[in-house]
Design goal:
Helices cover 28% and strands 18% of the residues. The chain has 160 residues and is α/β, with parallel strands linked by helices.
C-alpha cells in the first residue's frame, strides 16, 4: 500500500471530520494546515466584504503557516482537503502547496461546500503544486457523506 498523507484546512470543523474519515480509509497520517495567525469567527464571516477571508482572497495574499509536514518525501499520495471559498481553494491551501515539491506524488483533492461544486479548483491549484502534472481526482463532499462512501473513494488512490 502507498503511504498517504491527508493534509487539510478546516474553518468550521466540517472538513476536519471528513479528513479524519479519509485518513482512516487510506491508512494515512493527518496534518492540519493552520495559518500562523488563526482565523477568528469575524475573519471567516464571508458576508462582510472587509472580513479577513475576503481580503486574502481578493488580494491574492500568501498566508504564513503555523507548521510544516515532517518527512514529506515519505508520502506517495497526498489528499488535500479544504472548504470551497469563492469557487476555489482558500489562499492558505495555495500557501501550503507552494512549500513542497510535488514530483512523483499522487495528488487527490477533496472539498466541502454549502452549495458550490469543485469547478476549476484543480486546474487553478496546479499552478501552486510544483512538479505535479495532474490531480488524480477532485471532489466535493457534503457533511452528510458516509464514512463508507469516503472509504471506497479514498482507497482507490492508495493501492499498489
Amino acid at each position: 500500500m502507498k503511504k498517504a498523507l491527508v493534509a487539510y484546512f478546516s474553518a468550521s470543523g466540517t472538513t476536519a471530520k471528513l479528513a479524519a474519515a479519509v485518513a482512516a480509509a487510506a491508512e494515512g497520517e493527518l496534518f492540519e494546515i493552520r495559518p500562523l495567525v488563526p482565523y477568528s469567527a469575524a475573519d471567516l464571516k464571508w458576508t462582510n466584504p472587509l472580513a479577513r477571508c475576503n481580503r486574502e482572497k481578493i488580494g491574492k495574499k500568501t498566508i504564513p503557516l503555523a507548521a510544516s509536514v515532517e518527512n514529506w518525501t515519505d508520502y506517495d499520495t497526498v489528499f488535500l482537503g479544504f472548504p470551497i471559498w469563492y469557487y476555489g481553494a482558500p489562499n492558505v491551501i495555495e500557501s501550503f502547496a507552494k512549500n513542497y515539491d510535488w514530483n512523483g506524488k499522487t495528488v487527490v483533492l477533496f472539498a466541502t461546500s454549502g452549495g458550490s461544486n469543485i469547478g476549476k479548483t484543480a486546474e487553478k491549484l496546479l499552478a501552486f503544486l510544483n512538479g505535479c502534472n495532474a490531480v488524480a481526482d477532485a471532489r466535493v463532499f457534503g457533511a452528510e457523506t458516509s464514512n463508507d462512501a469516503l472509504s471506497l473513494w479514498a482507497k482507490r488512490f492508495c493501492q499498489e
